[in-house]
Structures are given as structure tokens and as C-alpha cells.
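Retro notes, item 3 of 5
We never archived the inputs for the S-adenosyl-L-homocysteine complex last cycle. Fixing that now. Sequence and ligand:
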Amino acid sequence: MTPLTRLLARRIRAGGPITLADYMTECLLHPEHGYYTTRPPFGAAGDFITAPEISQMFGELLGLALAQYWLDLGAPAPFTLAELGPGRGTLMADVLRATRAVPGFHAAAGLVLVEASPRLRRVQGDALAGFHPKWAGSAADLPQAPLFLLANEFFDALPIRQFTRAGEGWAETVVGLRGDQLVLGRAPPAPLAALEHRLADTAQGDVVEICPAAAPVMSALASRIATGGGLALILDYGDRLSRGDTFQALRGHAYADPLAEPGRADLTAHVDFAALAAAATGCATAFAPQGALLQDLGIGARTEALAARLSGPALQSHLAASRRLTAPQEMGTLFKALAVFPQGAPQPPGFA
Ligand code: SAH
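Structure as it came back at the time:
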């Protein structure tokens, strides 16, 4: 039993079963026992590996896309260069290295990292020393300025609520107790305004998920982009519409029981990109599979250029990393990219 299991059990005994959103919030961000607050989750030694940790090309290509679009919009200065949930800071370090040669880009940029975990803020500070990052606790705290922003595997970490269709209502998945054990259960079905629009495309027993925290984040980004210009590139696994149970735990690069060791496994759910796009009020959006986007941004040429300097196992692992990011059977189609940009502005690079 983890310390968090005991805390959660006490809470459930006192107040009844809790939603998956409440469960995820405690597991991921509890100040003493939360996953992101206490553990080094990323990389080969951690529980999962993300695109920027797979290859430097990911951050280079996305960074150049941001800088190209900054030029396309007339190089607004000053502007905010931001990332949501920067993890170890690898993506932003690659962005800054790749954009060094873009005239005026670094001079105009104020770097802001939106990060909840104090431990990860320190790691990011080390990775980005020299670029004077500032930290914000939420997207609502980003400066009112033109905004060029990346978010990779951020939205999948935001807490979700899960519902099963029952008649014209929805039964919510909850975490309760059987003895000392955390168990999943279902609350009695009730109508739900937030899922009214899903009555048309679901049948009895279908599962859908909503992420109440996502829309406020997106509208904070969209209001800055609509007013001052900019571009947000959001990459994550998921699809246009939430369908099915996607709540999952990863531990040591393998799927785990999400209730078994709260605080010790990463918990995620697929991102509903249609809901994200709908929350981007006043902005235009574009959508592409990650593989197609990276191809369009030139990952083929970049792979070859880097390969020319490599041989043996380093070459093999570089080529494998390029495939992993783009191939349909790997991350190429499971992961999607959403671009948020000003209405009437040109289409962002890679989203033609
Ligand atoms: N983008 C990184 C890390 C992804 S993990 C990469 O691709 O490698 C998710 C990141 O989001 C972590 O840095 C985590 O601490 C942060 N995070 C999770 N929930 C958050 C929240 N509610 N507010 C701010 N940051 C959050």
C-alpha cells in the first residue's frame, strides 16, 4: 500500500467515492506523494519516453516551425516563447538551439514555462540555464503578448472524468473502496449537459471522457493568440473525438493497473482534439497526424543530414528514432498535432 493509497482511502471513507479527475489530480500532483512532484518519470530509466527524449529532431523541427511562423506574422516583438509541461526541458533546449540563427528571434523572446512540479522546475532551470526562463503555474498566468507555444504530452496528463452511456444519461466512473482496496465503480446514471451533444453519436454502454481542465487552458492561449498573434502547437495522443476507455497507467515502460500504486505510475488519457479546437475561441485551428507533420517539416532531410555524421549503433538508433516518431505503426498516427493561430493568418508550416 502506498502512502497515497492510505490518504485516498481515508478520503473515500469520509466522503464517498471520488471521480477519476480527483483521483488523477492526487496521483499526479499531490505535493508529497504525487507522480510528477516526486519522481523522475522520463527517459529510458523512467516510466515512459516522449518524442523530444527520442530525438533532438522533434524539437528542432517544431522550433523552426514556430520561428518561421513568427517571421510570417511580421516578427512581433517582444513575444512570449512558452511551453506547457516542459518535463526535463529537452524540447525547449532543442527549440532554442535550432532557432539560434533566426535573426531577432531570441532577442524578442521572453521564455515562460508552465509547470506545476517544483522538482521539475529545477530540472528545467538547469537544462535552460542562460535563457532566463520564468515559470507560471497555469496558462492563465502567461503574459498578455504575442504567444508562440509548444505543448507535448501535456494535455494527456490533465485529469479526466469518464462516463458510460445509460439510457439518455451517463454513469460516471468513480474510485471507491472494497475493504482497504481501491476499486473502480460507477455512480448511478444522470443526465449531463456537457455530454448532451454526444447522445447523437453514442449507443448504450459506450464510454466517453471529458477533460474539464483543458478548455480553460486552451481559451487562455486562444485569447492571447487572437489578440496579439502567435501560434500554439499541441502534440499528444488521441483523436478528434473521445471514444472508449483510454484511462491508463504506465510504469517502467509497461501498462499497469491505474489503482495499484497511486503516485508511483504515470496516469494519462487520450486527448479529445475536437474539444480542444472548440475551446480555441476566436482562433483558426488545423489538425495533422504527427508523422505527416514531421515529414512536411522536413524530418527526412534532417534525418539524412544527421545520419551522414554517424555510423554503427549510433546510426542505427538515430534511424530507429526517426522511424519511431513518424511511422504509422509507431507514433506517427496515434499522435496528433493541433495548430492554433489567428483567424485570417496564413496556414502554419506543416499544416498545408
Ligand atoms: N513535455 C514533456 C513532458 C510531458 S509529461 C515531454 O514531452 O517530455 C507532463 C508534464 O506536464 C510534466 O512536466 C508535468 O509536471 C506537467 N504537468 C502535469 N500536469 C500539470 C498541470 N496541471 N499544470 C502544469 N504542469 C503540469
